[in-house]
Amino acid sequence: MPVWIQTAVLLSLSNIFMTFAWYGHLKTMNSKPWVIAALVSWGIALFEYLIMVPANRIGYSELSVGQLKIMQEVITLAVFVPFSVLFMQQPLRLDYLWAGLCLLGAVYFIFRA
Q: What is the pTM for the complete model shown?
């Protein structure tokens, strides 16, 4: 399997954990003290790091650090939009499309030869 695919798959998995760690507590723990939410989020974030660190190490064998960062940002938006709409029950906004188009520009510039 190509390095960029391995990296993208692992970064996608880590991003799911990251998104729940950063934002999931807003829906599921809003009545709990913030310190409890922080501790739970840190526990979830541990799994994110256990996947993200190997993903970046694998990716860095063929990709630049800039390419890894832009890949991560595209994946972040691709994970965040469904999370926001499906889990957080936020409206799907056209702004996500515009943000995605801006990221496509970033992909072009960072990956062009």
A: 0.91
